[in-house]
cAMP-dependent protein kinase regulatory subunit (Ceratodon purpureus), 302 residues
Amino acid sequence: MGSAFSKQKDKRKRTLSFRRTGVSAEPTAVDTTYIPKVVPKSDDARKRIKKAIEKSYIFRGLDKDQIKTVIDAVEEEKHRPGDVIIKQGESGLNFYLIEAGSCNVYISKNQTTDPVIVHSYSSGDSFGELALLYDAPRAATVKASTDCILWAMDRGTFRAILMKSTSQKRDLYEEFLSNVPLLKTLDAYERSAIADVLECEYIKAGASIIVEGTPGDKFYFLEQGTAEAKTKGQSVMKYGVGDYFGELALLNNEPRAASVIAITDCKVCYIDGESFKRLLGKLEDILQRKKSEYAHATAAIH
């Protein structure tokens, strides 16, 4: 259930997750003189935008006035399969929220090699913020892979409403995720997507993070502190910073096989079940192999 590592003592300077493409800069300052854009739209369109926003993690934490500003400002774009929505190397003008359909992300390492697909987006996902956050060229190309309905947010609205919260969250989790052994096989784009959906909570020493027998709906990373897995009251595994747990119930669609108790005060970051399946699919083989470790640990007490 876990994979321990020793945390580096000398912390690296936090840079943007897309360091492979050479984007590394401080976020651009928010424009305090910005006047919100208002694009006329029908009540039906406003309801559709609101529903799309509710699916997207990047909009969590906005108040009602900020959500209204977003709904007022975005413009609808429709794309056919193969349409280029953003192009690697170009300036960033818009941030996009997908209402319906899916898109593929392509990165070309140089002009002589063909671009390769590194990620896919679907309904509720968003993209295009990096060039706006760091006033840098687009780090990748995004093409529609199906018929798509997108809502495009202009640079000014993004910087006024979303920039601060987005950059803070990315900075907070970029280094932590890059040092989690499980995620080493993911590229920077994929780790960035995980950072966007992470939610965190603080657990007091002695409190339960997971309770044996309950439904499994979250996958956890331990960011601070130590914890242990127990079944039938006996300890079967211990966890330190960077370890993960909670994947078995999600992989097997079964109740929790053990309780996980905080040994010290802990900070845990978690991914909900839906995001776990969407973002960590390519890690499933690794996670499945970890099942044997847990089975061996629990066999000794049965």
Q: What stands out?
A: The CA atoms of residues 68 and 226 lie 42 Å apart.
